[in-house]
Amino acid sequence: MGSFTPYGLVPTVFGSNVANNCNELPDSHTISVTIFMIIGTYLSYTPQLYKIYNRRSSEGISSYFILLGSLGAISNIFNYLILHYWIIDCCSAITGTSCIIKLLGMILVFVQSIQFLSVAFLFFVFFPPELKYKTIEQLEREQLEELEEHNHGQDVGDSARSCGLSPSLNFHTPAYQEARHVAYAILFFFALCAASTYIFNAATNAGMHSSVIRNFAKLLGFFSLLVTMTQFLPQIAKTLKSRHVGS
């Protein structure tokens, strides 16, 4: 039995830690630890997912926490998939049981990443409705400020209110606009990683084993490490500022 290091929260930055040997399998202790980590990782996110779903609200969660965590999760997926694609190749030459055992590290990374992305999904689905739109008072105040600015600071008085709200006003709150931008950024980053992986894979005869795509994967691993180190800072700052835990 060969040695095997279970992977999880830390991306592979410098390459695979496992020798590219299809016949090497981890010992029973390592298999047990990895399975325990998979179950533990899955269960660790379950209370958060349930709380958001049960409350039908993601109030209290920072958009930037979701952004950084999602970018890290996506980077982890592509990092591990590329650098350990040889394991998938091995599965055609070994038994099904051996294949599953060798894929445990990949399963662990995927479970952790998908669970966080599930939190991100619920964050957008259950974004608090009361925080999506500005109140009439806020919109009227913005319109008055806009008119006063247009009239070089002159007080436009109550007559401006009789004109109705300008269609140029943004009816969404800054918090909801921020959340939408975060969603677009996550989707763009996923598309960028997928497109880059496809292009690098097709560009050389070595495919997923080429140095170009492996260097790209290592770059994603380093990026994931950076965002993972900082992703909780926005959430801590928001909780301290609001003095409210929320979801």
UniProtKB/TrEMBL annotation:
Keywords on record: Membrane, Transmembrane, Transmembrane helix
Main location: membrane
InterPro entries, A to Z: LAAT-1, PQ-loop_rpt
Transmembrane segments: 28-45, 65-88, 100-127, 182-200, 212-233
Example of a GO cellular component annotation carried by this entry: membrane
Superkingdom, taxonomy of origin: Eukaryota
Subcellular location: Membrane
Topological type in the membrane: Multi-pass membrane protein
Pfam name, any one: PQ-loop
PANTHER family: PQ-LOOP REPEAT-CONTAINING PROTEIN, SEVEN TRANSMEMBRANE PROTEIN 1-RELATED
Protein name: Uncharacterized protein
Organism: Smittium mucronatum
